Amino acid sequence: MSCEQRILSQPDGSATLSQGQTSVMSAVYGPAEVRVARERADRATVEVVFKPKVGVGGCAARGMEEVIRGVCESAIVTSLHPRTSLRVVVQEMHNDGSLLSCSVNAVCAALLDACVPLNFPVTAVACSIDHLTGLVTVDPDMKTQLGSASSATFVFDAKADNLLTVSTAGRLTDEQFQTCLAACQQASKSVYTLYRQSYVKRAAVL
C-alpha cells in the first residue's frame, strides 16, 4: 500500500491511495455553504460523489457513495459545523479489486489532510473466500475477487477497533463471517500505520 496527501491545491484536503494495482484519489471541500434544501440546523451535511474511471457512475457507484457517506457521517464531528456542507469527491484511477476498501481509506486520508474534526479515523479491508478451498484472501485483486464464492468489505473505527459497517457479496456462513472479520481486523492495523506514516511525511514537508 502507498498513500500521499496534499496532492491537489484547490481542495481543503486531498489524498491518493493505492492498494496493489487499485488506486483512488479523494478530495475534501468544506465546511462551506450548503443549499437550503440540504441544510441541517444541528450538523453539517455530508455529500459524497464517486466518479468511475470511465463514463458515468451507475447503481454500483451510487451504492458506494451511500456506504462512504454513512462512514463519513459516523467518523466526522458534524455537530461542530451546523448549516454547512462537507463535499467528498472520490475518483477511481484504476480498479484491480478491493475498490470500496481503497476508496474508504483514500477518503479518510483526505479528511485527515483537511484537518476535519473526527470522532475517530476509519480503516477498511476487503476479503474474499475461494469457492473450492474456502481459503480467505485479504485485499484480493480483481481476478481473485471475481473467482470467489463470496466477498466482504469491513470498515473499522481505528481508535477503538470496532466494526462500523460491512458490505458483502454472495453468501457467508456465520463461521466464514467471523473468520473474515478476524482477518480483516488484523489487517486494518497496517492501514492505520500507513495513515500515520503519510501524515508524518506531510508534516515534515510543511
Structural overview:
This protein is an alpha+beta fold and 206 residues long. It has one domain (2-205): 2-Layer Sandwich (Ribosomal Protein S5, domain 2). Helix content is 33%, strand content 33%. The strands form 2 sheets. The protein has a 5-stranded mixed β-sheet with strand order 1-2-3-5-4. Strands 7-6-8-9 form a 4-stranded antiparallel β-sheet, sandwiched between helices.
Layout of SSEs?
Elements: E1 2-5, E2 13-19, E3 22-32, E4 45-51, H1 59-75, E5 85-94, H2 99-113, E6 122-130, E7 136-138, H3 142-146, E8 148-157, E9 162-169, H4 174-205
Parallel strand pairs: 4-5
Antiparallel strand pairs: 1-2, 2-3, 3-5, 6-7, 6-8, 8-9
Helix pairs in contact: 1-2, 2-4
Explain briefly what this protein structure is.
With 206 residues, the protein is of the alpha+beta class. The radius of gyration is 17 Å and the shape is globular.
Largest sheet: 5 strands, mixed
Helix content: 25-40%
Q: Output the helix-strand order.
A: EEEEHEHEEHEEH
| Number of helical regions | 4
Number of separate structural domains: 1
Overall mean confidence score, pLDDT = 91
What is the name of the CATH topology? Ribosomal Protein S5, domain 2
CATH class: Alpha Beta
Indicate the radius of gyration in whole angstroms: 17 Å
Judging from the principal axes of the Cα atoms, what is the shape? globular
The class by helix and strand makeup works out as: alpha+beta
Strand content: 25-35%
CATH architecture: 2-Layer Sandwich
